[in-house]
Amino acid sequence: MHSSAALxxxxxxxxxxxxxxxxxxxxxxxxxxxxxxxxxxGDHVLVERRGDDLVLIERLPRQGCLSRRNPRRREVExxxxxxxxQALVLAxxxxxxxxTRLVDRQIVAASIQGLTCALGLTKADEAPAGRFDELxxxxxxxxxxxxxxxxDDDESLRRLRxxxxxxxxxxxxxxxxxxxxxxxxxLLPEREPVATGALSSKWQQGRHVTTAxxxxxxxxxxxxxxxxxxxxxxxxxxxxxxxxxHFPEFADxxxxxxxxxxxxxxxxxxxxxxxxxxxxxxxxxxxxxxATSLDEER
Length: 298
What we know:
Strand order of the largest sheet: 9-8-7-10-12-11
Mean pLDDT: 84
Oligomer: single chain
Distance between the termini: 27 Å
Structural class: alpha/beta
Strand content: 15-25%
Number of strands: 12
Largest sheet: 6 strands, mixed
Helix content: 25-40%
Shape: globular
């Protein structure tokens, strides 16, 4: 965030109160002038009143962050959201075509930070019969809650509110075009709707509509953070050899060799689980692809 102002929810305000503007002061404002990214959606801050103004004077220590590798400076973490309880990864059942490898990367990114994760499969009303069950099965098998989300389906929204969102801070996470902003508008019908974008007919990908993460209070309690769409996602804070700990089906597997890269090494615990039918070959390939990309990004 490079703006000299921010919208903040005041702890002392009523639950239904709207956020109020506050300007940056002191060291925070000096850092802004240097172009430093200061704040993320969900940050906890201290403010004080100076005359008619609220001034944001300090960012409190962060926890529960969702972050990614900065694409321009790979050693630098880019925080997308802070003080998050859980991530809701969204993917489309129709267009844009789902990338299970991107879904897995996003789940791993949440797991690295200790966040729980759920999967929302959007455009369920447009999908062929059986498509939802086909894509949901491997994730449900590993204990991830999976929700079918359809346009104007009040029952799917009710389930999402009561079973997942109520009382939690949830970050919406997924590529452009899957319907993050559409879902936000449906969950917050009393608020000013945010723009939603059509898919590019050439690329079948979404245009980036949400340009910065935003945090809003939910009527049932808790907060919703809508993040910009991503087409790729660089992982931060994990080594290739640690990735299997973020796949429930492989987390406690042991290999004969300490430096096993889970290809065709004898005694690979991950390969053994796939061969015994306890884990899917597709998920193992997803893990391998992540490990390769982490090695290449060094």
